[in-house]
Structures are given as C-alpha cells and as structure tokens.
Sequence to fold (446 residues):
Amino acid sequence: MKNSISKVLLTGLVFFVGCVSVADNKIEKFDLTYDQVIERTMHPFTGRSNPGVDTSTLHGKVMCGYQGWFTCPGDGSGMGWFHWGKPFAAPADKFEPGVCSIDIWPEMDEYNDEDKFVTSFKHADGSAAYVYSAMTPGVADLHFKWMKEYGIDGAFVQRFAAQTFKPFEFNNVNIVLTNCRAAANKHGRTYVLMYDLTGTTAEQIDHVIEDIKLLVDKMGLAKDPAYLHHNGKPVIAIWGVGFNKRQYDSLDCARLIKFLKTDKKYGPFTVMLGIPTYWRQGINDALEDKNLKRVMKMADIISPWTIGRIRTVDDTYNLSRPMWSEDIKWCNENKLDYLPVIFPGFSWYNMYGRSFNQIPRLKGDFFWKQFLAAKSVGAKMVYVAMFDEADEATAIYKCTNNPPVGQSKFLTYEGLPSDHYLWLVGQGGKLIRGDIPVTEKQPDRK
Fold:
C-alpha cells in the first residue's frame, strides 16, 4: 500500500537501528519498512469496552498528559533506552549511573515481570533497579488501572509529529497509542490524541494531516467508545501553537486546524490548542504574531502551558489566578473553552545539570494550590502535566522513595506514599466538580 507519507519517506527503504541489551548484550535490529509498520500496527479497536467515565464532555474532567515515550533495549522498539538515557550521550542509548535523563524513579513493584527491564543502577541494598517499557501493553494497562482506582478521568496521549517520519519511531508511537486505547476501554477511562508539533517545520504540517488521515482510515481514530468527545465531536489536541523558536507559525497551524474542523471525510473534530503562557502579551514563550489570536479563534479549546512559568506557592496566587482570569474572560468573549495546566513540581538535573529540585513539590502543597487557583477562577476542567514524565520530574504516577544510589541523584516523594499524587489528582477532580469543599490545605487522607 502506497500513501503520501510513504512517498515522503521513500517507500521501501529499510531503516536499521542497533541497540545493546544490558541483560545479554544482544544486538537488536529494527528492519521493517514504513508500509510494513502500517500493516502490523494500525488496526481498528475490536476489544471490549467497559463503562466508566462520561466520554461526551470535557467539562468536569481532570485529564493527565501521557508521554508513553520510554523504551528499553530488547523491547522490539529499536530505540534503546529512549528517554531513560541521556539523549546526547555516546552511545545514544547509554543509561547508567551518571548518565541518565530522569530525575525521579518509578515504583516498579506492581509491574508484570515481562514489563520490567533490568538496568545497571543499584539500590542502597545492592539490588538491581528496574524500569519499564511503554511498548509492552501491560504498562498502559497498569497506568490506566491506577487512573480508575484514584478517580482520574483519562489522558491526553502524546504523539510527537517528529516521531512519525522514521519507521522505527512510527512503530513506537503507533504501539503506544494502541496500548493506551485498549487500556482506556478496559478500565472505563477516556483519552484524547494530542499532537505535539515540537521539531516540526512548516513544510511538514501536510505530513501531520496525512498521518491523521492514516489514523482515521487504518485505526478508526475516535471511533472507539473510550475516545473523548466535547460539543458533540471527538476532541483532538494540537500542542505547540504560538510558541517562539519554532519553524512554523500560526498560519501554518491554521491549515491543520481548518482540516480538522471542516474536512467532510476526516472531520469534524473539536480542536484543542496547546499554547504559550504569555499568548495574550506576545512575550517570553510566545511569538509576537499578529495572526495568533485570529487562528486561536478557529479552535474550540485553548490550554496555556504553565510548566516552569510558576515556581512557588505565591505564584499560584499572584500570577496564575489573575492570568487565568483574564484568559477565561477572553475565551468567554470568543466562545472558547479554557483548560488550565497544573503540575506538581519540576527538576531537570540529570538531563541538563540544572538546579536539583528546581520547583519543589512541598509534599503536594504546590500542586494543591494550583487546583485551588483553577477552582477560584471558575475553571470547568484541568490538565495535569504529566502522568508519567520522569525526565522533568512532573510525574504523578507511583514513584519510589528508595531510588538507586550512586552518581545520579534522584528525587523522592519526600516520604509520602508512592500513590499520593495519584490520590491528590483524584481529589482535585472532586474539587473542580464541587464534590468536596474548598480547603486551603490538602484534604485529609483517610
């Protein structure tokens, strides 16, 4: 089968990627063509779907960003220690004490044996430390099971456009999407496809459009019961509109938005845009783009990215609340919905050597104050960044208080239970929906 994306990639050319397994030093090669990847990984959902979250609206929801980008040697991805290892290390898949990109370590007790991959890291007692690969379906299954257990509505499943060009990366993002789709349906959660345009050029916007066509034609995108709808249409998110230092501008994005909103065969979608914090002012992270607001009005939902923009509890009062209030006012005037982004903390030490624990979690207080700020300005829904982001230590899934020791430093949950942030997100959802009273302190955990 030939298609326009394959033509861009020179159909039939085979890409080989070598990776070394820590366990057996075996060389792993990925040797599928682009069209073979399509045939093997892109199929409609045919599994069982269990009832749970109301998938007809985003209102009242707390959704988490889901990266799903972690791979391991031996998992069939051909991508080595992707996002575990330091991306600019030599070799590229190097992941060992002193060379890694994560600042927090996942709690591995509940993962299946087939989902665990041994590393060269050691715990204080000398035992080997393990991580997981999102290529194995049991990982998404466990993660969405946790979402159900703690009352988290679902996830924005990330699909980086830059990873849809090479067959081995294209294979990876297709499998992760498939795993998340199956898990969301099994556990009665909901999900949305989120395109991240990072690393994309203006000329490649057409490639994104072709990829969406492929997802609709081959995978039945948005047709399974767990897929989230809003305003009567399935939601699709486009992240990276209006940011500075990009190789495309808002008018390039307008072409994509128009396709999603109006195409008679592949649309219409309810379109959400991930935009800069300072989109109204056109400063800092935002382009001075005279067309940006006009393009934003083409969409249905906007969601400004606040990671690292607020850094303290005081910022939630002095920066987030007034900023979100003005944003919501603009949205109301232009008949758009507003999805504020909140996060538990931030650290980028092992990847870039910056300050360790740059934005402290304060045992959940920093996170809870953002929920309160969102509630105070009348937000009807919240985006939590992120479910599984260990690189920037914004993860809310189960992480360990007993990380490996040695040359690499890791944060912990400061003695809190490994599930504390999952539980807190569930409480945040109740707060936004008005199911629990507003309290300045985190709710008591019974």
The first helix runs from residue 4 to 8.
